[in-house]
Design brief:
The chain is of the alpha+beta class. Helix content is 27%, strand content 28%. It has 2 domains: 44-85 and 178-254 and 362-429, FAD/NAD(P)-binding domain (3-Layer(bba) Sandwich), CATH 3.50.50; 133-168 and 256-359, 2-Layer Sandwich (D-Amino Acid Oxidase, Chain A, domain 2), CATH 3.30.9. The protein has helices spanning 3-29, 53-65, 104-117, 121-127, 175-188, 238-245, 282-285, 322-335, 398-413, and strands spanning 44-49, 71-76, 93-95, 130-131, 134-139, 159-163, 170-172, 192-194, 197-203, 211-217, 222-227, 229-232, 251-252, 255-266, 277-280, 290-293, 298-308, 340-341, 344-345, 350-361, 367-371, 387-392, 428-429. The structure holds flavin-adenine dinucleotide. This is FAD dependent oxidoreductase domain-containing protein.
């Protein structure tokens, strides 16, 4: 081997060695269960706080849109199950109209996503989803407009039922079943759902620019989760949680929370296609009174709203107002059919009852926004690469709006073009 050949051989060896080294390094970063969290470009982790309908719809859309080898989605939930709070204790109406002007495009965008899902027979069956099954009862001629009334309510001859609203789209869904469906979809999409873990604080000052979120598990142990994106979807707890996590932030979420008492009864009648329906007695009784027949053989009812100053601590069972419960029970006894046995008329069987909270903001608009890093602390602008987002405050329409707001939030996280301009749906800054 002469000198030139020797030199060429050394060069070739160096080239091969550097190629092998680079390849090994790249495959190291690809390890799925690595404990280290390198920079956002190479490996990204998004943590969503709250496994209600808003948190799980966000996780669902995000997980559908990402490269799962490079981007991990984690949902942390303080309770021992998903849909532990308001998301499973609501009427389940999905509507297209009746929104304030600023919300209408989001409501229609979201409703269209539900409608698309509703084309799938499995989704309809498992979630008890049904279109055009919402009726308002009115006193009048008794003739109505020929709309079918389910077999689980007493009808009076002078009542008539009309589709509500008559010329618009409306659907109904069983929120409990929806929670199970979303949970399953998220697990299939490799979303990690961590139950019994409560977010308590955030450290934005990590050396690699990610965030370190402290969570307390069911046994009281503190754990740290490194993440690049953090999404607050903690429903009625979002305003207080944001303040707790970012005490120096200039962003303010002002909450206006209203509560509703509710009952779930066993449906005493046999299940038919007509059993799934929303029936509204507002005109008959002169106040809000809703019943919903569901695919799990239950009937849900809720009545008047009441404004409340604050919500109980996360995980605590809310205490219903006894007076409002008694009134609601009396209406249910009056309007629902009772079980009959050989011994005669029996009492309606109560499966559960309680109170739940609508997570609303001062202007009744949800917050679907990213918070710029320089608005998170009073420190130097942009000192962290960590991205914080809020998807919360959906008020009385959280089920309707969640599929749309979850999709828009996932587009925001991924820096994609948003399907809808939601720039007006942000927090206020001081
Ligand atoms: C009586 C009633 C009837 C309603 N009817 C309808 C209807 O017919 N149609 C409709 O569209 N909407 C309806 N709504 C509104 C809808 O139910 C809510 O807007 C929606 O469920 C809110 O969902 P969410 O995910 O924001 O909140 P939630 O369901 O409250 O979820 C938030 C989750 O965050 C968790 N969490 C909070 N803090 C932490 C923490 N620090 N760490 C970890 N986890 C945390 C909580 O445990 C909770 O599970 C109704 C509401 C009520 C009260």
């Amino acid at each position: 081997m002469d000198l030139i050949q020797c030199f060429a051989f050394i060069l070739l060896s160096l080239f091969i060695a550097s190629f092998v080294l680079q390849w090994r390094r790249r495959s190291f970063w690809r390890q799925p269960d690595q404990k280290r969290y390198p920079s956002a470009q190479e490996n990204t982790t998004t943590v969503i706080i709250g496994a209600g309908v808003v948190g799980l719809c966000t996780a669902y859309h995000l997980a559908k849109a990402i490269d799962k080898k490079r981007h991990k989605v984690i949902v942390i939930e303080a309770a021992s199950q998903v849909f532990a709070a308001t998301s499973s204790t609501n009427t389940g109406i999905l509507s297209y109209t009746g929104f304030q002007e600023e919300l209408l495009p989001l409501a229609q965008y979201s409703y269209d996503l539900w409608e698309d899902l509703g084309k799938d027979t499995d989704f309809r069956r498992s979630c008890g989803y049904k279109e055009n099954a919402n009726f308002a009862l009115k006193t009048g001629s008794g003739e109505g407009d020929g709309e079918p009334i389910p077999n689980w309510i007493h009808t009076k001859t002078d009542w008539h039922a009309i589709r509500d609203p008559p010329d618009s789209k409306m659907a109904i869904i069983n929120p409990v079943a929806l929670g199970q469906w979303l949970h399953k979809q998220c697990l299939n999409l490799k979303v990690e759902i961590r139950l019994n873990e409560k977010a308590t604080s955030v450290d934005l000052d990590t050396t690699d620019g990610t965030m370190s979120l402290e969570v307390i598990d069911g046994e009281g142990n503190a754990l740290n989760l490194q993440c690049n994106h953090l999404v607050l979807a903690a429903g009625p707890w979002s305003p207080a949680l944001f303040k707790q996590l970012f005490p120096q932030s200039s962003a303010k979420i002002e909450a206006v929370i209203s509560a509703g008492e509710w009952f779930v009864f066993e449906n005493p009648e046999s299940f038919t296609e007509k059993s799934i329906a929303g029936i509204y007695f507002n005109d008959i009784v002169g106040q809000k009174l809703e019943f919903a027949g569901r695919n799990d053989h239950t009937i849900w009812t809720t009545g008047e709203k009441s404004e409340v100053g604050e919500v109980p601590s996360v995980g605590d069972t809310p205490k219903p107002d006894p007076g409002k419960l008694a009134k609601l029970r009396a209406y249910a006894d009056m309007f629902l059919k009772h079980p009959h046995t050989s011994g005669g008329k029996q009492k309606l069987r109560v499966l559960s009852h309680g109170r739940s909270y609508r997570p609303a903001t001062w202007n009744s608009l949800p917050i679907i926004a990213g918070i710029p890093p320089y608005n998170l602390t009073t420190k130097e602008r942009g000192h962290t690469k960590a991205k914080v987002f809020i998807n919360s405050g959906h008020g009385a329409y959280g089920i309707t709006l969640s599929m749309g707001s979850g999709k828009l939030m996932s587009q925001m996280i991924l820096h994609k073009q948003l399907d809808l301009d939601v720039s007006r749906l942000g927090p206020s800054y001081i």
